[in-house]
């Protein structure tokens, strides 16, 4: 079944209708989205109870049941994350929520359990998250390319059993979920399969390998839910049957400034992958604090994407770790990017610069590019650059099959194939020399 697509106006209309009862759009968005999450869990057989009690009280009970399924889901019953217990909902608002999700059941095919549409729905429902924190989810085809250029070579270099990956601006978990599946079934070309990479062992190792951090507490909770929903689906069990000992490495924290969160420990990750916010901090105090911590990149009216680059390359990555990001290309054209381009980036091993400004990426109105570096001084004199010629002639029906995006993927495939051929040729020559 094809995933349904609704206009942003449909979500805005629902939030506005519920806000007339709650008094604010933030709580309205959380009520509406929490109802979708509970439906997703029950409709896909992930929740411990078969029948949901009716009404808002029934939703609160469902959230409490979900929170008890696994320690990582405890935030779903925390009023600091979901202030629903403190803001009761009236019958008219509840009817609007029920009617909306009756018409658009979980927004995705009945056999899909990864909650991809739930992530997008939160972005569309919550104006606060979308505008205040620049929440903008990474489409799956973009996430796959970022991971191909970072997590995949990291697994080849360090081994899939040992690799660790983080998205320090994980939002609702699009990149983290894609990484979970890549680690669970590693694409090891020509080397067969690893023993122990099927069933519970594979799920536990994949969960242990993937981490996500976000400033939005509810978005982080949703990422944890999605990782557990994927795990439960692979194992063929309900959420409460996923062992509590299985790690879910997701936290709500300020990745740029928090130095106490264990998931942000220095020198931990072999791959750092992100689609960080592109906005300039609106709060002057926060803007100055970030500038003080990242003076080498946070100059002038800087984009937050630049401090995230410094966070990943200088702090989170292990020596030689891979860092890939979809980011605004404004640093190439504006004064705040001068020091970033001339002084900061040359210190690291640049691997790829891909112009994605002409590709149609839903929700991303800002022109973007993909940067891939390794956390080490430059090695060699080659950087692979994929330059744009022109943009899409029209909005593609399937953005993943757009002319520009397909051209980018074809160029990446050609380069990676050449690199593999050259590496194999070098190995062959070394073998001949050794004999």
CATH superfamily of the largest domain: Vaccinia Virus protein VP39
The average pLDDT score comes to: 89
How would you classify the quaternary structure?
A: single chain
Strand content: 5-15%
Euclidean distance between termini CA atoms: 57 Å
- Report the CATH C-level class of the largest domain: Alpha Beta
Q: Look at the helices and sheets and give the structural class.
A: alpha/beta
Overall number of structural domains = 2
Under CATH, the topology of the largest domain can be stated as: Rossmann fold
Q: Overall 3D geometry?
A: globular
Helix run count:
15
Low-confidence stretches: none
Task: Tell me roughly what share of residues is in helical segments.
Answer: 40-55%
What is the CATH architecture descriptor of the largest domain?
Answer: 3-Layer(aba) Sandwich
- Provide the gyration radius in Å: 22 Å
Give the strand tally: 8
Order of helices and strands: HHHHHHHHEHHEHEEHHEHEEEH
Largest beta-sheet characterization: 8 strands, mixed
Trace the largest sheet across and list its strands. Answer: 3-2-1-4-5-7-6-8
Task: Tell me what you see in this structure.
This protein has 435 residues and is α/β, with parallel strands linked by helices. It has 2 domains: 1-132; 135-434, Rossmann fold. The chain is 45% helix and 11% strand. The protein has 15 helices and 8 strands. The protein has helices spanning 8-22, 25-43, 55-67, 91-103, 116-125, 127-132, 140-148, 151-158, 174-184, 200-209, 217-235, 284-293, 305-316, 338-344, 403-434, and strands at 165-167, 210-214, 249-252, 269-274, 317-328, 349-355, 368-374, 384-386. The protein has an 8-stranded mixed β-sheet. Helix 10 (200-209) packs antiparallel against helix 11 (217-235). The chain starts with 7 loop residues before the first helix and ends with a helix. 46% of the residues are buried. The mean pLDDT is 89.
């Amino acid at each position: 079944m094809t995933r349904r697509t609704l206009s942003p106006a449909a979500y805005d209309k629902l939030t506005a209708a519920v806000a007339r009862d709650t008094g604010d759009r933030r709580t309205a968005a959380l009520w509406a989205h929490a109802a979708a999450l509970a439906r997703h869990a029950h409709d896909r057989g992930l929740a411990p109870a078969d029948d949901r009690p009716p009404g808002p009280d029934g939703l609160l009970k469902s959230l409490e049941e979900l929170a008890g399924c696994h320690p990582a889901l405890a935030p779903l019953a925390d009023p600091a994350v979901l202030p629903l217990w403190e803001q009761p909902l009236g019958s008219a608002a509840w009817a609007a929520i029920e009617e909306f999700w009756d018409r658009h059941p979980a927004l995705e095919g009945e056999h899909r359990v990864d909650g991809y549409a739930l992530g997008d729905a939160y972005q569309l429902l919550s104006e606060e998250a979308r505008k205040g924190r620049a929440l903008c989810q990474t489409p799956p085809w973009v996430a796959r390319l970022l991971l191909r250029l970072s997590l995949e070579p990291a697994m080849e270099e360090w081994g899939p059993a040992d690799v660790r990956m983080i998205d320090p601006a994980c939002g609702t978990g699009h990149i983290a979920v894609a990484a979970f599946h890549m680690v669970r079934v590693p694409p090891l070309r020509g080397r067969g399969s690893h023993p122990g990479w099927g069933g519970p062992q594979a799920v536990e190792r994949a969960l242990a390998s993937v981490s996500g951090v976000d400033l939005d507490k509810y978005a982080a909770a949703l990422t944890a839910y999605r990782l557990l929903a994927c795990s439960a689906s692979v194992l063929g069990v309900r959420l409460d049957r996923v062992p509590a000992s299985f790690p879910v490495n997701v936290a709500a924290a300020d990745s740029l400034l928090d130095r106490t969160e264990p998931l942000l420990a220095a020198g931990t990750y072999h791959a750092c992958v992100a689609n960080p916010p592109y906005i300039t901090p609106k709060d002057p105090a926060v803007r100055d604090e970030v500038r003080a911590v990242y003076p080498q990149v946070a100059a002038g009216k800087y984009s937050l994407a630049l401090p995230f680059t410094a966070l990943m390359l200088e702090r989170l990555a292990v020596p030689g770790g891979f860092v890939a990001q979809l980011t605004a290309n404004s640093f190439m054209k504006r004064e705040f990017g001068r020091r970033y381009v001339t002084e900061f980036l040359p210190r690291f091993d640049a691997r790829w610069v891909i112009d994605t400004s002409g590709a149609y990426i839903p929700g991303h109105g800002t022109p973007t590019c993909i940067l891939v570096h390794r956390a080490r001084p430059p090695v060699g004199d080659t950087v692979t650059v994929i330059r744009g010629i022109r943009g899409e002639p029209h909005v593609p029906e399937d953005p993943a099959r757009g002319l520009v995006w397909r051209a980018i993927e074809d160029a990446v495939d050609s380069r990676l194939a050449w690199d593999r051929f050259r590496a194999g040729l070098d190995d062959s020559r070394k073998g001949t020399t050794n004999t």
